[in-house]
Structures are given as C-alpha cells and as structure tokens.
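A note from the maintainers: we've had questions about how concatenated examples are separated. There is no special marker in the raw files; a new sequence line simply starts the next protein. For clarity in this README we add a label.
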Amino acid sequence: MVRLPTPGHLVRYGQRCTAALYDRVVRVPRCSAPKDVLAILHLSRSGSTVLGSLLAQHPKLYWDGEVFDRRRPRQQLFRRLQGVGDRQDPERIAWLMRYAGERIYVLSAAGFYGRRPEELIAELKGLGCNRFVLLRRDNLLRQRLSFLIADKTARWHLSSTRPPSLTPVTLEEPSKLLAHMGNAQALYRQLTDSIAGRPLLELTYEVDIEVSPSLAYDKVCRFLEIEPLPVKVRYGRMNDYPISELVINYQEVAEAFRGSEFEWMLEE
C-alpha cells in the first residue's frame, strides 16, 4: 500500500526544499562547520520524528533528520538539492553541517547502518559531535508492534489532529523476538559506553514523549543551554490500544513471554 502525502506535508516539504536551495547558493559557501553538533541516537519507532519536528521549530537549532538514511525517495531528492546526492561518507555530512550556519546542528542516527556502535560513535565524534542524546523505548514489544503496523499500513506518522485506528498484526516467532529484544538492550549499553566522556542526555519514550513530547523538547533545549520556545506538536500516537487487541496471536506471544524479563511488556 502506498499513501500519498497530505497537502500539509507537501507544503512543508516544498518550503524545506526552497530553503535548502537558497542556503546552497547563498549561505553555505560563506559558512564554516558549526561550533556545536548534537547527535540523537535511537532505534526506529522511538519518537524521534515528533521530537525532531519540535526541535526544527527553534530558531537556534538546525534539525537535519537522519543523515545516514538514503532509502526514502523524498529524502534522496532533498539531499540532491543540498548538493550531496546519495553519498554517505563523512565529507558528505561535514558539508551538510555547514547549512546550520550559526545555529546548533542536530542530526538523527536511527540504527547503525552496518557499523558497530563504537564505530558509529567514533565517526560522529570525528565529525565534531560534542553532545549526544540517547532516546530509547523501554517497551520493546510496543516498539516492534509500531514498526509492523506502520509497515502494514504504509503510514509511518500520524497527525496530532487524527485519531489512531486499530490495525492488528501477527508477531511471527515470538521466541526470536525475545532474542532481538535482548540484543537491543545490549546495543543501548554499548552506545552509552562508547559515548563516555562526552555530555549525554538520556531520554525514554514512555517518560519524555508518550505523555507530552514537549517534555523531551524542553530537556533537549536545556541540555543545549538554550531557552525553550513555544512549539506546535504536529504528530500523535499511532497505536493507542491494548497489546491484546493489537496482536492477533496474543496467546502465543503471552506464553512465549511468560517468565522472561520482558513479560511486563504485555501489561496494558
């Protein structure tokens, strides 16, 4: 299923592309690398999009999204307008950073793109990242369900003005999912260890974004030592339903989770 972008998305995307072209021609040639660079590290479906949409509204921040992601057509077009095409090397990201000008450059890294956690952190440090945010989602079961539902419906984000709709999915091989969750927890620990020595802000989806994304926004602003300004929350929750209603084979999953360290994730 392919969903067409809404008129609002098209307007914002057009404005972003126009600004990118102007910056490329007028501003970037006269700009050097920003003094401050923030990297937000997370796994998919952890609330990074809603957080990034808030940070992008602050005049002292330049939100550049997922700089390593080349999969989405609209993202590829935007990067070509910025003059970097499909390149994924450090020089490409260094060029993108110049678009920030005097603002703080903020990038997102969702996953590791074939790198080990320590390799990703080393590359980001080499690019000048002097602050890090680690955004995690404690309920890894809901995180997986969010991915499956988004993939099934081809709807990855939901406007804050639209109510969520129930879309049940099947969780194949629950035992393998348990192993995957264990690996995810290990990755979080490796990231924390690799960042040691640099300023780090740790956020969780359940505490800082799920109830009110503005909480995460305020914490990031204060972490960067800038005053939070009023912003508009554009995205809402997509799967506000009990897990027993979201999972078609709920009994099978509950049996696999019973007695494990992840059993609590079944709680409604």
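[label: protein 2]
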Amino acid sequence: MPRPTLFRSIDPRVPWTLILCLAAVLLAAAPATADWLVTETGERIETEGPWQVRGRLVVFEDPGGALRSMRLSNLDMEASEIATRDAKASPADAAVEEGNDAVERPAAPTPVMVLTNADIPQAGAAAAEDANLPPQIILYSTSWCGFCRKARTLLTELGADFVEKDIEKNPEARREHAAKAGPSAGVPVLDIDGRIIRGYSESAIRQGVEEVLAEQRQQEGDGGAEGTESRGGDVADYADADLEQGLG
C-alpha cells in the first residue's frame, strides 16, 4: 500500500515519536489568544475564553478559572468587542488595520489622582487645641426628666453648642455632676462656661448662653488671639415651684 502524500517527504529513518514531539512543541509555541472586557473607565480585563451577556450581567472566567460576573452598565461592550477582535487578529492583520486606521482603538484610561491624608494640608496647631478644649455648655440630665427636656429644647432654640451627659448612664458624668452641683443635687444641672445652674430657669439659661455667644463672637472678631475666662464655678439655685420639681 503506498504511503500518503503528506508523509512521502519524511525520511523513513526518522522515528515517529520524534516527529510527534516536534509537532506538539510547535503547537504549544503558537500564541494563545484571550478575550477582553473593557470597563467604562477604560480598564481592560482578560477573560479565559469568551464572555457571555446574561441579562444585566456579563459572565466570564478569569485566567485562574474562577467564574466571575460584572454589571453590563459598567462595561463598554463596543470597546470590549474591538479589544477581543484585536487580540485574536494575526500580526499581519493588526499591521494593516493600524496603517489604515480601520478600527477605532479604545481610549486609554484617564489617570486618576489618589490623595492621602499626607497630601491634604492639616489644620494649624490652634485649631487642634480648640478641638481639645472642654465644651463651654454642659447639660447634666436623665432620660426621664421633663425639665431636662425643656432645657435641651431651649438650648437648641438659642443656637448654643452644648454637650448633654446622662448621669444615670455615665458614671464619669455622675461624678462631674456631684462635684459641680453637690452630691444631693437633682437634674437638670447646667454648666455654662463655669457658671452652675441647678434646676430649670429660662431667664438664667438665656442670660448665660447669650454671654457665651457674645464672647465667642468677640473672640472671632479679634481673630481668636486670646481665650475666654470661665466664671469660676459660680452656683445659682432656682427654687420656685417648678424648679423644686426640677431639682427633685
């Protein structure tokens, strides 16, 4: 039986195992092509085999063989098809397309500037010191106290920056409350820049808040050159009928 034409030129003395090995090497050396996805921001993602559009998702395998998906709205499908076609094109075809500008290339990704805290100017030492200053207005209260709610509402209406501390939930606040107003004092107790108000008095709270706000405005007008002196822990009690309940 005659030998097939394909193998007539092969020297019969060459072992067939050697021929098969050479063929396998040549096949392995052929460049493998990959499919590509291009995001709306220009990022290129290599896929293992073709990607598939399933509803609002694009499903694909990454080079590691893991199944992944991305939202269709986050991808530029036209650019993805072009990138995939370019990857599969032969070098000769790519040179022709490059010369004729037949295919529009995906735009290069726009550089993104990443800023860290080290790149952002920080506030000066004076601002840091202000952040560490104790609050000028503190309201010591409890969750069940009606007069505490009235004091809180009044402070909010006056536009005052204040800190409220619940003496039943906060042991440190309880110790502060006792040190400033006395161990037997009730609630509410207000510390307005060092002036202690035991009980609820709208006029006393208004006066104290207005003085604090006036000092703040003056300090802002002076450029914050000097601090504000507190009132040295003056204590004012209000003992009309409503305030007796507030103190109880």
